[in-house]
Design brief:
- Two copies of one chain form a homodimer.
- Chain A is an alpha/beta fold and 324 residues long.
- Chain A has 14 helices and eight strands.
- The first copy, chain A, has an eight-stranded parallel barrel with strand order 1-2-3-4-5-6-7-8, surrounded by five helices.
- In chain A, helix 8 packs across helix 9.
- The longest helix of chain A has 16 residues.
- Chain A starts with a helix and ends with a helix.
Chain lengths: 324, 324
């Protein structure tokens, strides 16, 4: 049983990261309505959110710029068109995927950019590339995180080796990413334990990015908070790939730190997120995501099921069980 | 951290209770499509569910029979029209609310009824009436539970006194009911602790009935399982009042006992639950329910908001904060 004092109080180390534009952008290929990002920026400022992830730094060699909105690429000038010089306490982040980012060229030195933090996303088998990206970004003056994706599919011992290697770099935060939405709170607790074991030796912080395949994104984030995780990803109305993420409105309602305000999030969801849904943008818990989550599979088949407008869950169940 | 063996294994004491008709009936006033209850009965049989709650034993003096479907009243003959003599391992339950049931007349002796279990629902301030109902039902030959509603609004010491009184009766199961969907898993853990403290002295079992106001119905049920709770309520597609309940498909996906099968639930949801939704029956997580849950309020204002088709969450927030 967790310490009662912790439930009533709050940790000063907690940082809330709004990943709506980045993970939500995976749902609509980053084609957000014109005023969306600016309004979200203002809502985050009012809500006391600590970091706002603006999108990806994706390679233009690999991704056709005509097929994605500009936040897939997050050019500095485009970010400035949204946030100006961002002379605020809200820090800006972008995600850079291993193997999908020309980081040496496309990430400019920090003193030329409005971005504060580079989040390097990697699978556990591409750690050397992630290390190079982290060092590149740190040398350019950025804060850095390393987001280890699909933690549910790796062996605990592999995580330990990966973390030891990453902890030799200047990276500040090591992220647990439950990409498949496969983990139960008790399992999150054990993954955190492994991360904590290595990261505390090196003074690194730990983050959590949860998916809602089994309606556990918020619960897993709460579990992680109780276990000492400090960087918490959330998205407005849970918008994110497939079943989506931990909802910002739920997270700010739970955190006891009086610096956070839930009301601006409610206003934003009312005005902007429901409008997206009415335009036919689809995300959130549904049975196809539960199935891939339970089976610890990548959600791509479930996303295709959704896009095709299918509702034959029982046929889909047979298809994904056959993949297992 | 919970015992790893427990996560891999399963408890033989676990009983899964399908509350779809009863809690779901609160959404559509028990007007289910004609073949719904029978198909649900067959799905529960295939899925290995232990108990099926058929509805309420509501007083016809208090409730107009023309305004509700027959499962609001669960007359024995009507139940027989659905399940015949139910010569199966699936037991049947009905709920009887303190102050809303003419139990002395309307609950016939067990040997005249297809029902196996009477679930007495009470607030913590009406325990003497609940005790009388439990004794009446037990004397007539039924299994009994006592479902203590709105546990989030009571003081821990009141629960202890109530439980001591209830444990003097023949009741078999004491239920934690988070009617407001207000509790976080860490709080569930503490409530279970209080229940366990009293109930184990008397050899009584503990149940959990969760609501999904904060997307925690499943997580809170998992938490309770890990803490030793054995009777688990769930509903197909989470159908239940307001934000709904713990989803049967999620619960059976998590329980490791090979007696449970998730596939019949998936088939039923595909065929019957989505049809209900398409007919305009509305339940499930939304911001209005999150707000009443967070504020530890009865969901009646949020249900009215939903019925009126409102989507001005921010106005509603002001209204419910003012009630606090």
């Amino acid at each position: 049983m967790k310490d009662l004092a912790k439930l009533m109080g709050f940790s000063k180390d907690t940082k809330v990261v709004d990943a709506t534009l980045r993970d939500g952008g995976l749902v609509n290929d980053f084609f957000f309505p014109e005023d969306f990002a600016q309004a979200l920026y203002r809502a985050n400022l009012k809500a006391g959110v600590d970091y706002m992830e603006m999108g990806y730094k994706a390679s233009k060699d690999l991704f056709d710029t005509s097929k994605f909105g500009p936040l897939k690429f997050c050019e500095d000038d485009y970010i400035r068109s949204i946030v100006g010089d961002n002379m605020t306490d809200l820090k800006l982040a972008v995600m850079a995927d291993v193997g999908r980012c020309n980081y040496k060229e496309d990430i400019r030195p920090k003193n030329e950019s409005p971005i504060d933090m580079i989040r390097v996303a990697t699978y556990v088998n591409t750690i050397p590339a992630a290390v190079d990206m982290i060092e590149d970004a740190a040398n350019k003056g950025y804060e850095t995180t390393c987001n280890i994706m699909a933690v549910s599919s790796g062996q605990q011992e592999n995580h330990r080796v990966a973390l030891e290697a990453l902890c030799q770099t200047p990276v500040e935060v090591l992220y647990i990413v439950d990409s498949y939405g496969a983990l139960y709170p008790e399992q999150i607790c054990r993954v955190v334990d492994t991360f904590m074991d290595v990261c505390t030796k090196y003074g690194k912080k730990i983050g959590i990015h949860a998916h809602n395949n089994q309606q556990l994104a918020f619960a897993n984030t709460i579990e992680a908070v109780g276990d000492g995780v400090s960087f918490l990803d959330a998205t407005y109305a849970g918008m994110g790939r497939g079943a989506g993420n931990c909802s910002m409105e739920l997270l700010l309602g739970m955190l006891r730190n009086p610096k956070y305000y839930q009301y601006p999030v409610i206003e934003f969801v009312e005005k902007h997120m429901n409008a997206l849904k009415q335009q036919g943008v689809v995300w959130g818990y549904d049975l196809q995501y539960m199935m891939t989550g339970m089976l610890n599979q990548h959600p791509r088949t479930a996303i295709a099921f959704t896009k095709e407008g299918r509702d034959d869950y029982s046929e889909f169940y047979k298809e994904v069980v056959a993949l297992d």
